[in-house]
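testing teh design pipeline on a random one, pls ignore if ur not involved
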């Protein structure tokens, strides 16, 4: 992928498209997908849409009992316990997935946290970077043989327009010199985008292609660590918690871009791209408002993606199974 490939493809879908719109008429029978966070918010909408189209879906879940309860009416979904912030749990969950399936057509990294209070996990890692990026990185490495076995798999990583808040803090990725919850979120979302760039470069010879995306502005459980007052101040909701912000999507509309990334024939032979509103995003100029859309050049830079990949390998001890 090069930055010049970040150009719209004349997709027939838009910001208003829903999960059902994107998958209308598609038969995903015989396909297997893993959807992290697939039991709430955008992840639940994604799981519902994939299973309705015939796919078998495995849902890694930090709260497995809650996941099973949420998925009781979703045939074809199976829960595997997994905490993305705990490398031992990720490895154990991945081992269980390898027991369940012999190939993996789709891996959708939907789970995430946002603007959390400072948390240290594992060997003192910053919590948002760990849950949003390092956990998904390790999971993907653990499941890579299953992706390669599919001979045409796609990995779809939920990033965010929030990546515009921060590049990777190479000097201090774990905020040991002072914590800012929004910069930590922005760095984690940049990491999500760079992860897709490097994974695509390494996996394409095995037919594994990767994409990152901004799902849009949606009120879901992602905002659970923010106070109502904070959300009111940002113009997202009113005092009753009702969504009042302009340009907000429904959860089904928010899931649409990830499902488009996973299934669209327009993306055949492509990868390493950042998407939004069911389309390839343009590169945005430095200093432009975050809500204007697009992707910052630093979030799709192949050199930075390779550097982050090596940092992540060292941190997680993941097997370097990719070419």
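output:
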């Amino acid at each position: 992928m090069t930055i010049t490939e970040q150009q719209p493809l004349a997709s027939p879908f838009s910001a208003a498209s829903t999960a059902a719109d994107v998958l209308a008429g598609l038969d995903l029978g015989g396909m297997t997908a893993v959807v992290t966070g697939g039991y709430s918010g955008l992840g639940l909408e994604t799981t519902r849409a994939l299973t309705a189209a015939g796919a078998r879906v495995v849902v890694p879940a930090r709260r497995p009992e809650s996941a099973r309860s949420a998925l009781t009416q979703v045939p074809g979904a199976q829960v595997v316990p997994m905490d993305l912030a705990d490398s031992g749990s990720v490895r154990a969950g991945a081992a269980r997935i390898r027991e369940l399936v012999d190939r993996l057509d789709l891996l959708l990294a939907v789970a995430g946290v946002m603007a959390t209070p400072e948390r240290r996990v594992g060997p003192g890692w910053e919590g948002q970077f760990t849950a949003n990026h390092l956990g998904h990185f390790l999971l993907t490495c653990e499941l890579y043989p299953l992706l390669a076995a599919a001979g045409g798999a796609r990995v779809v990583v939920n990033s965010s327009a929030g990546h515009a808040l921060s590049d990777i803090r190479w000097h201090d990725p774990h905020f040991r010199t002072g914590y800012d919850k929004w910069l930590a979120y922005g760095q984690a979302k940049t990491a999500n985008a760079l992860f897709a760039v490097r994974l695509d470069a390494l996996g394409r010879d095995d037919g594994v292609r990767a994409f990152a995306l901004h799902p849009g502005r949606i009120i879901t459980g992602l905002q659970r660590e923010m106070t109502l007052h904070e959300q009111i101040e940002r113009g997202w909701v009113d005092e009753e918690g009702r969504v009042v912000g302009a340009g907000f999507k429904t959860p089904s509309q928010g899931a649409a871009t990830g499902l488009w990334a996973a299934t669209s024939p327009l993306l055949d032979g492509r990868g390493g791209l950042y998407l939004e509103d069911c389309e390839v995003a343009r590169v945005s100029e430095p200093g432009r408002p975050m809500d204007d859309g697009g992707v910052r050049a630093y979030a799709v830079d192949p050199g930075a993606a390779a550097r982050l990949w090596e940092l992540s390998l060292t941190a997680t001890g993941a097997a370097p199974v990719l070419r």
